[in-house]
Amino acid sequence: MTGAARPVLVVAEHLDAAADMVVDQLNQRQIPVVRLDAADFPQQLTLTATHEAAGAGWSGMLDDGRRTVRLEDVRAVYWRRPGRSAIDAAVPEPYRTWARNQADAAMLNLLAALPGVRWINDPHRDRLAAHKPQQLLAATRCGLRVPRSLITNDPVAAAAFAKQIDGPLICKPLLGGRLDVGEERQLMVATHQVDPADFDDTIRTTAHYFQERITKAFEVRLVAVDDRVFGGTLHASSEQAAIDWRTDYEHLDYNTIDVPDDIATAVRRFLAYFGISFGSFDFAVTPEGQWVFFENNPAGTWAWVENRTGLPIAAAHADYLQGAIS
Question: Are 228 and 193 within one domain?
Fold first, then answer.
């Protein structure tokens, strides 16, 4: 198959605005696209792959009953928060969990084994890049300023940290930010300000992630696609939005900002550090104009940034997946 006809494989949930926008961009360029959700495997999606002893790699087929894609023809994979494999409910536990893990491993690891394929992002590297403690280490090594931080389950250590900071503190989740409350409902665990006077033995119940609260003029959702960086600003007009903008969208104003060269260079180093091609970075910009790195979500949302600002983020994804970016 010629390079021009080789398809991009988009692996994402069926309802995902970012995936929709990238698929639209690829369609406009007449790049073949096959979109599927890993959650459909193995019930609605068939996978067959073979590897010959002396062969160059895996070959085979993905087939959802309407479209097929040959694994060896895939030029790039956009791995965008797909669901986990769904196993027939008739399979009893513990076999259903075992079968789900087998299916997840087959889909992910076979795609990861394809040679010469561009990824946004390789999920194996994505997983390490999502670790917040590792992110702070990488950010400082790449030249970014980060907040003073503490991870602990010791109330005495937490109190000592608060005394050292001698200013406002926030607490944020270490992993994700969603709390399953049943009936297919989830609550977001938001970043919140804490009062050291309230520290007690309940801190021992789990790990807590404390940081100094950074004084912000505004925040930036910086979206990086390979060498390209896009800065979308968020200006909060409520205290709630100022602490965690996700909790109060009604009090946010959006705009764009030119990313300073030193920040752009550090972000590119950060991507290279983890071997990923995409990141959705959160920064604060202080009243003095200093940029402070909070975290990077290697599968973070960005569709709202493009929709609010017009920044060509989907086009940058398509450029990279197509192969227009070196």
Answer: no
